[in-house]
């Protein structure tokens, strides 16, 4: 059988092309290519070379439209035993190709050519084309044999033209030879034999039969020559005669041959114009041809030589003719029939050719699986031959099947169009995603794939192609390890190793073997070197830009991440970067990865290789790092792996798809899960861009990076040094706070940082930060309860510590890199410095309570000034010292009726000593009236209280001086409402606001009180007593804050009313009294003029009924009754008075003490027509209830007359 | 003659979802592969033929040597493309039927 046969083959003149002398292979290929262009020479072109010696037998030759066709057989071929049967099988011409520079002796060339031509007895024309002759050769050659044609050196076009002319000459010569042959055959006849006839040579019967058949066979052969001469009409005429004769003599084989020639003539006549009629005609006739060949082979069944190959060839010819997509069914049927014939073929090479042709034809109608099937049959036939060249052929044929079986090497696949579909699918929804994943794994006939790969491996090993063997073993191992036994896996590993030994080191292969590599995580920059995009139009340039920081969620980045769907990562030139990948070795042998590094096609990152050992069935997460070298985008498609002596690229995307397939059950096994690794994680490579060098601040807390241990409330300065470790100066910097307990950072020296800008590379700046430790109990109730026992534990938690967030940036554009995009602004950075504060429990509150102290005042000449000075005594100029004195010490003459203290009981569970000092910051109560005098708040301090360790102590805080100067409705009305006393107008809103007002005033009060502590040499802080005080004051805040509506005072009157005009001047006299009568005592048996002062603290006039009582030590009223010991003049009871708002009224009276001793004077009054404010202040229950006001008791010390 | 057969269910997207070598002949690995190779290749014929006929059973549509390929084209609307038939019950049934009729 012959390859590549078609119906038109019958009309082709076979020309052997032989190299003569030494012709270098590329040149031979080049010369042959030039020749091959002249596969068809038109008859019109050869007329100039043609001379009609006799009358041409080709009477109907189409000189204007016909042509001669050549089939060049490079290297020649041995004569076919069937060349008598089909003349096109004869080598009718020999063309020698000579390269003159390598064959200097032309005589030698001619001789060699002559020798070569001897093998081709059938050749009618012989020519030797000698290319590139030297001048000497040209001169020499022209005298030589006319068959030697020299092609003088010229340009390509000229040479081609020359060759064309030569071929036309050859064609004309051939045509003349054909005429000669036909004329001779017609006149003298010819003996034509086929191998079918040879055996019956000696049978006389057969001889007679052969004689009968000779004529028909001669006609058939003349028809063949007519076809070769390009004259289909003549050919047809001869074939018709031949058919008749063959039919008569029962020469079915030749009958079929003539029939076949007839179809060829028909085709030639139609000049390739295909129409359905022609197709039907050809189909019909060829089926007949096939039928007759079959008939002849049945007839000659007994013979050793079978004409089966002609039947198969005819089948293939018809199939090739019909080979169109729409006739695929017919073609497939023909090819199936042809394939059936294979097992009857005796010659293995015939079978090979048959399968090759079948595979090619199936491929032409796009039956790729069929084509692959027969290609594999071809490969198996090659492999049976067990030699290197056959194995090489097998390997090449199998390589062609890999596409159909979906096991192709990645080297043969340029792109992955399906992968894009997957990307789109994931965006469109689950169903689409599933389908596109399915399409990734379609045609996964794993059994077949393994067989094919194994055969490729076998043939590659046999053919001595280590790279192909490595690639096949890699594909087999990587894709089908779950189906391969551990022994088989080991075998493949050995195959990989053996192949690698034959390969030069550093060989690359497109197909990865092991391990499986997937992206594990993409570590973001740590909070220390975080990069923030800069918005140059804003002062706070870091706002609104998503950071690559440690926080998963930021409100700014949320919207962005949804839009882009991909993270953005910024790398900085010169700063090392890390990527975590997970490797898996699901096979049963130890895997040694010689080196693995990130594959970065962008070329602006230098990756660092690492080597890894993977035990059987194990996975490992490793860190791959690199250093960005230049600005630009970075893509990381996968890793480069040097394993088993070959460098391969492992793409993350492939493994991603594989894992997706595994998740859908489409792939046999998930290599990571079978190694015990965690579930599928969706990690995608973010968009990475490399930016120019940035400044890099490195923080350092002076005094050690350990925790800053503070007691609750402790205030301490911490120094943080920042040094610029980058290569670019810091030009902008801004500090903000973040995290919990931000208010524990009292101050940060922003100016120190700002003042140090620009911070040059290598420069350092130190920032003082003042910290105040927070309350443990308030922040962390768990810890507080644990430490309640008094054991001081360290409760350092990062989560509780505040953080300094420093946004800083270098110059806006990096001047060092002019290629950088002008619009691109170099990003800034963010440094997060956690302040590692560890708060220890300090002093703890045991309880807080409000105490009231009742010490009566002594009646003296001085005016008993109410806690908040007189409104009308504006001229009074009290020194702050005096006030201070009054606050902290109780004036024995004035008393401290209703003075309130906040008592804090503190315990010290720590092992150090604390000293407590209380200070009250007090605004001057008359500041608003007398601003010129007391503008600043005055601070009063109490003596320090020391609390030893494991002891408790109480601290008193006086609350007296917070009283408001005026009792009016501004505060009070709302308070009434809030109490809900007698009003139905109360609304929730006013209640709320009233409450808020109340709380605000309490808070105001509290803020004035500061309880500070010291411990040791440098620990000091402040107790947070806010809540405690608030709790203690909540119930009695009115009493603390609000003045009584009326205040009462008693005074001695020496000189009538003169004192009253200047109430606070008589200090001298008072002192005098004190001197003469110790402690300002009065003398018995003397008329002592006194006055009672009633001050109205409200803004409305109050009418009242005042009464004064005097009691002795026993508490008996001593002005009334029979045993009265005190006589009086003036009115003491039922004094009706009217006190204008914020004024005071005096009432004069005199007492005469009969008995020396201690007396108490008390003034009380019943307010008439009390308004709401007064009622509310008195907490009256009913509107009819009389409102009484009682003054504090005043002591009177009466001395006996000496 | 020893009968041997290979039964394969192929889903759309050309994914074999069930495979069974049945029959009385001694099982040879090569043969099993050949069966699968033939069935795989026959799909080219089936995919063209399926559109030209309404029949669900396509008898002897392809052959190689003595091996004949027949195909049922059926449709399961509840099938999730790509999923494999892993039911051992189904496998047992198929083999039982094969013993009965082959």
Automatic annotation (TrEMBL), chain A:
<dbReference type="Pfam" id="PF08626">
    <property type="entry name" value="TRAPPC9-Trs120"/>
</dbReference>
<dbReference type="Pfam" id="PF26254">
    <property type="entry name" value="Ig_TRAPPC9-Trs120_1st"/>
</dbReference>
<dbReference type="InterPro" id="IPR058564">
    <property type="entry name" value="TPR_TRAPPC9_Trs120"/>
</dbReference>
<feature type="domain" description="Trs120/TRAPPC9 fourth Ig-like">
    <location>
        <begin position="1058"/>
        <end position="1198"/>
    </location>
</feature>
<feature type="domain" description="Trs120/TRAPPC9 TPR region">
    <location>
        <begin position="330"/>
        <end position="497"/>
    </location>
</feature>
<feature type="domain" description="Trs120/TRAPPC9 third Ig-like">
    <location>
        <begin position="879"/>
        <end position="1041"/>
    </location>
</feature>
<dbReference type="InterPro" id="IPR058567">
    <property type="entry name" value="Ig_TRAPPC9_Trs120_3rd"/>
</dbReference>
<feature type="domain" description="Trs120/TRAPPC9 first Ig-like">
    <location>
        <begin position="545"/>
        <end position="646"/>
    </location>
</feature>
<feature type="domain" description="Trs120/TRAPPC9 N-terminal">
    <location>
        <begin position="203"/>
        <end position="268"/>
    </location>
</feature>
<dbReference type="InterPro" id="IPR058563">
    <property type="entry name" value="Trs120_TRAPPC9_N"/>
</dbReference>
<dbReference type="InterPro" id="IPR058565">
    <property type="entry name" value="Ig_TRAPPC9_Trs120_1st"/>
</dbReference>
<feature type="domain" description="Trs120/TRAPPC9 N-terminal">
    <location>
        <begin position="9"/>
        <end position="196"/>
    </location>
</feature>
<dbReference type="Pfam" id="PF26283">
    <property type="entry name" value="Ig_TRAPPC9-Trs120_4th"/>
</dbReference>
<protein>
    <recommendedName>
        <fullName>Trafficking protein particle complex II-specific subunit 120 homolog</fullName>
    </recommendedName>
</protein>
<dbReference type="InterPro" id="IPR013935">
    <property type="entry name" value="Trs120_TRAPPC9"/>
</dbReference>
<keyword id="KW-0333">Golgi apparatus</keyword>
<dbReference type="InterPro" id="IPR058568">
    <property type="entry name" value="Ig_TRAPPC9_Trs120_4th"/>
</dbReference>
<dbReference type="Pfam" id="PF26251">
    <property type="entry name" value="TPR_TRAPPC9-Trs120"/>
</dbReference>
<dbReference type="Pfam" id="PF26282">
    <property type="entry name" value="Ig_TRAPPC9-Trs120_3rd"/>
</dbReference>
<dbReference type="GO" id="GO:0005794">
    <property type="term" value="C:Golgi apparatus"/>
</dbReference>
From TrEMBL, chain B:
<dbReference type="Pfam" id="PF04628">
    <property type="entry name" value="Sedlin_N"/>
</dbReference>
<protein>
    <recommendedName>
        <fullName>Trafficking protein particle complex subunit 2</fullName>
    </recommendedName>
</protein>
<dbReference type="InterPro" id="IPR006722">
    <property type="entry name" value="Sedlin"/>
</dbReference>
<dbReference type="InterPro" id="IPR011012">
    <property type="entry name" value="Longin-like_dom_sf"/>
</dbReference>
């Amino acid at each position: 059988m012959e390859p590549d046969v078609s119906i038109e083959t019958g009309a082709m003149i076979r020309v052997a092309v032989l190299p003569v002398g030494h012709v270098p292979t590329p040149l031979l290929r080049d010369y042959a290519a030039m020749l091959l262009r002249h596969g068809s020479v038109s008859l019109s072109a050869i007329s100039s070379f043609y001379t009609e010696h006799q009358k041409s037998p080709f009477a109907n030759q189409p000189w204007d439209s016909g042509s001669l066709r050549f089939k060049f057989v490079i290297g020649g071929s041995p004569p076919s035993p069937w060349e008598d049967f089909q003349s096109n099988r004869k080598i009718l011409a020999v063309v020698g190709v000579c390269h003159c520079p390598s064959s200097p002796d032309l005589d030698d060339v001619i001789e060699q050519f002559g020798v070569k031509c001897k093998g081709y007895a059938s050749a009618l024309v012989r020519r030797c084309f000698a290319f590139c002759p030297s001048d000497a050769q040209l001169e020499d050659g022209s005298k030589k044999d006319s068959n030697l044609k020299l092609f003088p050196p010229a340009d390509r076009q000229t040479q081609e033209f020359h060759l064309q002319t030569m071929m036309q000459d050859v064609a004309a010569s051939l045509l003349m030879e054909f005429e000669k042959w036909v004329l001779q055959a017609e006149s003298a006849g010819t003996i034509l034999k086929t191998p079918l006839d040879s055996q019956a040579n000696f049978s006389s019967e057969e001889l007679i039969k052969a004689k009968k058949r000779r004529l028909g066979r001669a006609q058939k052969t003349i028809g063949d020559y007519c076809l070769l001469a390009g004259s289909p009409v003549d050919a047809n005429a001869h074939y018709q005669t031949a058919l008749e004769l063959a039919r008569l003599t029962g020469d079915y084989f030749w009958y079929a041959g003539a029939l076949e020639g007839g179809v060829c003539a028909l085709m030639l006549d139609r000049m390739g114009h295909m129409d359905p009629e022609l197709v039907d005609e050809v189909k019909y006739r060829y089926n007949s041809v096939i039928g007759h060949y079959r008939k002849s082979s049945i007839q000659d069944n007994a013979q050793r030589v079978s004409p089966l190959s002609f039947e198969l060839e005819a089948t293939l010819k018809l199939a090739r003719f019909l080979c169109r997509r729409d006739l695929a069914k017919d073609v497939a049927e023909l090819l199936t029939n042809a394939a059936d014939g294979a097992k009857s073929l005796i010659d293995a090479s015939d079978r090979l050719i048959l399968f090759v042709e079948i595979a090619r034809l199936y491929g032409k109608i796009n039956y790729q699986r069929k084509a692959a099937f027969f290609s594999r049959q071809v490969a198996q036939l090659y492999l049976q031959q067990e030699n290197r060249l056959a194995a090489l052929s097998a390997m090449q044929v199998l390589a062609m099947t890999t596409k159909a079986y979906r096991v192709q090497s990645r080297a043969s696949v340029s792109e992955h169009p399906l992968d894009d579909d997957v990307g789109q699918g994931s965006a469109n929804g689950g169903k689409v995603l599933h389908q596109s994943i399915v399409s990734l794994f379609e045609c996964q006939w794993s059994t077949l794939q393994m067989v094919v790969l194994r055969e490729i491996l076998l043939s590659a090993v046999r053919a001595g192609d280590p790279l192909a063997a490595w690639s096949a073993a890699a594909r087999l191992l990587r894709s089908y390890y779950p189906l391969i036994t551990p022994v088989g896996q080991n075998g493949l590993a050995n195959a990989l190793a053996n192949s690698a030994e034959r390969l030069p080191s550093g060989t690359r292969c497109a197909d990865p073997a092991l391990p499986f590599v997937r992206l594990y995580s993409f570590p973001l920059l740590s909070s220390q070197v975080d990069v923030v995009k800069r918005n140059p139009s804003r002062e706070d340039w870091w706002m609104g830009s998503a950071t690559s920081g440690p926080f998963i969620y930021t409100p700014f980045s949320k919207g962005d991440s949804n839009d882009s769907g991909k993270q953005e990562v910024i790398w900085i030139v010169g700063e090392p970067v890390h990527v975590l990948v997970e490797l898996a070795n699901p096979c049963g042998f130890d895997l040694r990865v010689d080196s693995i590094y990130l594959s970065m096609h962008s070329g602006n990152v230098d990756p660092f290789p690492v080597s890894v050992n993977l035990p059987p069935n194990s996975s490992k997460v490793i860190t791959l790092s690199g250093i960005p070298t230049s600005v630009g985008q970075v893509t990381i498609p996968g890793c480069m792996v040097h394993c088993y002596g070959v460098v391969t690229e492992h793409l993350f995307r492939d493994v991603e798809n594989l894992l997706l397939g595994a998740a859908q059950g489409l792939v046999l096994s998930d290599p990571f899960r079978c190694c015990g690794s965690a579930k599928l994680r969706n990690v995608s490579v973010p968009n990475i861009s490399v930016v120019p060098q940035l400044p890099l601040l490195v923080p350092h807390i002076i005094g050690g990076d350990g925790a800053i241990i503070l007691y609750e409330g402790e205030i301490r300065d911490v120094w943080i040094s920042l040094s610029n470790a980058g290569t670019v100066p810091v030009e902008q910097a801004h500090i903000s706070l973040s995290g919990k307990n931000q208010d524990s950072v009292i101050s940060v020296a922003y100016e120190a940082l700002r003042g140090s800008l620009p911070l040059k590379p290598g420069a350092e700046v130190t920032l003082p930060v003042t910290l105040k430790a927070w309350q443990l109990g308030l922040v962390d109730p768990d810890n507080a309860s644990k430490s309640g026992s008094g054991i001081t534990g360290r409760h350092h938690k990062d989560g509780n510590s505040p953080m300094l967030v420093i946004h800083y940036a270098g110059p806006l554009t990096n001047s060092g890199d002019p290629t950088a995009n002008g619009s691109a602004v170099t990003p800034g950075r963010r440094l997060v410095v956690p302040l590692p504060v560890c708060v220890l429990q300090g002093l703890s509150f045991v309880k807080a309570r409000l105490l009231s102290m009742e010490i009566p005042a002594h009646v003296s000449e001085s005016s008993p000034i109410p806690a908040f000075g007189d409104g009308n005594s504006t001229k009074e100029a009290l020194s702050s010292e005096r006030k201070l004195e009054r606050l902290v010490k109780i004036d024995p003459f004035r008393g401290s009726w209703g003075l309130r203290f906040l008592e804090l009981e503190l315990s010290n569970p720590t092992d150090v000593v604390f000293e407590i000092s209380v200070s009250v910051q007090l605004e001057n109560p008359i500041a608003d009236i007398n601003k010129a005098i007391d503008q600043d708040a005055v601070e009063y301090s109490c003596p320090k209280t020391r609390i030893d360790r494991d002891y408790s102590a109480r601290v008193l805080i006086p609350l007296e001086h917070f009283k408001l100067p005026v009792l009016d409705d501004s505060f009070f009305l709302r308070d009434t409402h809030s109490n809900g006393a007698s009003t139905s107008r109360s609304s929730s809103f006013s209640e709320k606001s009233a409450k808020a007002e109340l709380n605000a005033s309490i808070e105001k009060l509290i803020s004035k009180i500061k309880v500070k502590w010291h411990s040791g040499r440098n620990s000091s802080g402040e107790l947070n007593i806010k809540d405690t005080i608030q709790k203690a004051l909540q119930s009695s805040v009115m009493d603390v804050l609000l003045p009584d509506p009326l205040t009462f005072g008693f005074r001695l009157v020496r000189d009538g009313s003169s004192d009253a005009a200047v109430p606070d001047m008589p200090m001298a006299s008072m002192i005098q009294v004190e001197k003469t009568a110790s402690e300002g005592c009065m003398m018995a048996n003397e008329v002592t003029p006194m006055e009672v002062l009633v001050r109205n603290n409200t803004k409305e006039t109050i009418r009242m009924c005042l009464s004064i009582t005097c009691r002795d030590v026993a508490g008996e009223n001593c002005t009334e009754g029979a045993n009265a010991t005190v006589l009086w003049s003036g009115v003491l009871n039922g004094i009706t008075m009217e006190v204008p708002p914020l004024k005071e009224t005096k009432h004069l009276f005199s007492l005469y003490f009969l008995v020396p001793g201690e007396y108490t004077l008390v003034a009380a009054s019943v307010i008439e027509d009390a308004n709401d404010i007064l009622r509310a202040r008195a907490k009256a229950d009913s509107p009819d209830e009389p409102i009484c006001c009682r003054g504090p008791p005043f002591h009177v010390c009466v001395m006996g007359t000496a | 003659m020893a009968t041997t057969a290979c039964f394969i269910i192929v889903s759309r997207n050309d994914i074999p979802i069930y495979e069974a070598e049945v029959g009385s002949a001694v099982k040879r690995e090569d043969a099993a592969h050949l069966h699968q190779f033939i069935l795989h290749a026959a799909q080219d014929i089936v995919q063209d033929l399926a559109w030209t006929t309404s029949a669900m059973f396509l008898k002897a549509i392809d052959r190689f040597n003595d091996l004949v390929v027949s195909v049922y084209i059926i449709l399961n609307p509840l099938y999730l493309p790509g999923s494999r038939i892993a039911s051992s019950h189904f496998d047992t049934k198929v083999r039982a039927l094969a013993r009965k009729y082959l």
